């Protein structure tokens, strides 16, 4: 299995891209530091917060792995530190490379949000054999937040969401256990690998999926 993962990494240059939080704007982005809890090495809130809607918000990512688990948490206040205690979207599996925009966020019942409430969104993903990746965005809630510019919130061709095979947080699992191959074997079929092939991820990703299918 390890050998296959190394082969995948060698085949797919995008695999090193991990993931990127594009909207709301991340505190910062240093690719090599994404594994650093809680915010990919950016521990200080930005003074430049994105005004984000109280209902029907969206969060736009760039995905660099053919499959990754994703979870979205939030911490309220000016500086939640590492206390991202409220789940905005529980763990699911995303498949496909490129733009991925999650939509229809709303604040959980019982949380008291008013115009001007500050908070920080934490996006967790896996996708790497070593486990969790983190990126955070500082926001100010507003009932009159502007909609994101055209093109900010889109999905790439072949990007899709499926139920996660694990309910664990993405930083408690590795990409290897939740990859296309894992879900294919868990469901007792090759359907996930086949759909990856059909989704047109490109020759490199197809070669990787084919390698996994042969091992299985
Ligand atoms: C502040 O954030 C906005 C929206 O993300 C961005 O367009 C702008 O460049 C940022 N300004 C600074 C000084 O960081
Ligand atoms: C929210 O954060 C901004 C700085 O980013 C600050 O100016 C403002 O006072 C904060 N709002 C509250 C309610 O603390
Ligand atoms: C919600 O927060 C606002 C501002 O802090 C406060 O005035 C209001 O009483 C709170 N509402 C509830 C139901 O706690
Ligand atoms: C992107 O795809 C996901 C999963 O199907 C979907 O929930 C989301 O609404 C899509 N985003 C856009 C901008 O259509
Ligand atoms: C994973 O992230 C959650 C949410 O921020 C955090 O509570 C937990 O401690 C993290 N686990 C690890 C192993 O870092
Ligand atoms: Cu990665």
TrEMBL record:
Protein localization: Cell membrane
Residue intervals of the Copper acquisition factor BIM1-like domain: 16-158
Gene Ontology CC: plasma membrane; side of membrane
Residues annotated as signal peptide: 1-17
Top-level division of the source organism's lineage: Eukaryota
PANTHER family: COPPER ACQUISITION FACTOR BIM1-LIKE DOMAIN-CONTAINING PROTEIN (PTHR34992:SF1), HYPHAL ANASTAMOSIS-7 PROTEIN (PTHR34992)
Record Pfam families: BIM1-like_dom
Keywords: Cell membrane, Glycoprotein, GPI-anchor, Lipoprotein, Membrane, Signal
Protein's name in the database: Copper acquisition factor BIM1-like domain-containing protein
């Amino acid at each position: 299995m390890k050998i296959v993962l190394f082969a995948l990494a060698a085949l797919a240059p995008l695999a090193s891209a991990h993931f990127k939080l594009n909207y709301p704007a991340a505190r910062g982005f240093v690719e090599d530091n994404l594994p650093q809890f809680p915010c990919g090495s950016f521990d200080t809130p930005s003074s430049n917060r994105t005004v984000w809607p109280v209902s029907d918000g969206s969060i736009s990512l760039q995905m660099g792995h053919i499959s990754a688990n994703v979870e979205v948490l939030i911490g309220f206040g000016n500086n939640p530190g590492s206390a991202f205690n409220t789940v905005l979207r529980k763990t699911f599996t995303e498949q496909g490379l490129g733009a991925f925009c999650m939509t229809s966020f709303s604040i959980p019942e019982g949380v008291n949000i008013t115009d001007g409430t500050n908070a920080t969104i934490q996006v967790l993903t896996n996708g790497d054999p070593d486990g969790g990746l983190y990126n955070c965005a500082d926001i100010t809630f507003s009932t009159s937040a502007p909609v994101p510019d055209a093109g900010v919130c889109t999905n790439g061709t072949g990007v899709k969401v499926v139920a996660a095979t694990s309910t664990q947080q993405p930083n408690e699992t590795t990409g290897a256990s939740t990859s296309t191959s894992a879900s294919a074997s868990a469901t007792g079929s090759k359907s996930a690998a086949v759909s990856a092939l059909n989704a047109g991820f490109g020759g490199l990703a197809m070669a990787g999926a084919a390698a996994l299918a042969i091992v299985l």
